[in-house]
Write a structure and sequence with these properties.
This protein is α/β, with parallel strands linked by helices. The chain folds into 2 domains: about 5-90 and about 175-280, TIM Barrel (Alpha-Beta Barrel), CATH 3.20.20.140; about 95-160, DNA polymerase, domain 1, CATH 1.10.150. It is about 45% helix and about 15% strand. It is built from 10 helices and 7 strands. The chain has helices at about 20-25, 40-55, 85-115, 120-125, 135-145, 150-160, 175-185, 200-210, 225-235, 265-280; strands at about 5, 30-35, 60-70, 75-80, 190, 215-220, 240-245. It has a 7-stranded mixed sheet. The longest helix has 29 residues, at about 85-115.
């Protein structure tokens, strides 16, 4: 079995539509994927409808990646199998979406006032699928499209970073809240790519008391030593291990698709299913 439990679509900062993700996953001989867009779950039903319409043999897990900021760290919490109609989950998603829109308007205003770069909110909004999650990549692309920079990397370097005089930090829920809400919605909350967070070990201990059930040990950023470290940490706290490519777009550097290319043991899927059954019976 070949699995990838961390994939993004055009409903956040991915470059492929849900339908294109399905086709690509089939082309990569994947058996199970999870769609984990930032702060929304809109791509799941679209992908499932496409599967059914075209009689495609692929399992899709409903997922999400909640972006949080904690002690100046970007902490991402993955969620799997949660009830998308749970009131608290809906409120959390709504809060995150409104915060993204507010941040974008603030950055657009500062770009005009301090840098003379004039873009409209609609210029950013059109770069993401309808009602999808606007983020840094879309703002950077809009700046570049307006002629404000020569390319997206320059836009990031000048304007879309924490030290820029036009950058505004987004308001977010805490990772503790994200874990608790996903857990209360019957889902499996997982600490995503913990290698990015220097305080990951201590934060994991904190999040366990809020309902954390897993750690993403297998990730394209993780060296074998990191995989071993976070797998050991998971064992220490009785957590399951997950993994995925964190796919956003075809890799120009490697000339191939990164989806499903990093090794994720198939037993991870089995553990995830067992955990979901345990939650449903609790």
């Amino acid at each position: 079995m070949k699995i990838d439990l961390h994939i993004h679509t055009t409903y956040s900062d991915g470059m492929l539509s849900p339908e294109e993700i399905v086709d690509t996953a089939v082309g990569c001989n994947l058996d199970v994927i999870a769609l984990t867009d930032h702060d929304n779950v809109l791509s799941y039903q679209i992908a499932c409808d496409y599967l059914k319409k075209n009689n495609i043999n692929l399992e899709i897990i409903s997922g999400v990646e909640i972006n949080t900021i904690y002690k100046n760290y970007e902490v991402h919490i993955l969620g799997y199998f949660m009830d998308k109609n749970n009131n608290d989950f809906i409120k959390m998603i709504d809060f995150q979406q409104k915060a993204r829109i507010e941040q974008t308007h603030q950055i657009i205003d500062l770009l005009a006032k301090k840098q003379g770069i004039k873009i409209k909110f609609e210029d950013v909004q059109k770069l993401v699928a309808p009602k999808g999650s606007i983020g840094r990549p879309h703002i950077a692309r809009a700046i570049t499209n307006s002629g404000g920079t020569a390319n997206v990397m320059e836009a990031y370097a000048k304007f879309i970073n924490n030290s820029s005089d036009v950058y505004v930090e987004r308001k977010t829920v805490s990772p503790h809240d994200a874990v608790e809400v996903i857990s209360e919605a019957g889902g499996i909350p997982v600490f995503a790519h913990p290698i990015d967070v220097d305080i990951a070990d201590d934060l994991t201990r904190e999040l366990v008391s809020y309902g954390l059930r897993g750690i993403e040990a297998y990730h394209r950023k993780h060296s074998p030593a990191a995989v071993e470290h976070f797998s050991t940490l998971a064992e220490q706290y009785g957590l399951i291990v997950t993994g995925g490519s964190d796919f956003h777009a075809p890799s120009m550097n490697h000339g191939t698709i990164l989806m499903g290319k990093n090794f994720v043991p198939d037993w991870i899927y089995d553990k995830l299913i067992i955990e979901k059954k345990r939650i449903d019976l609790a």
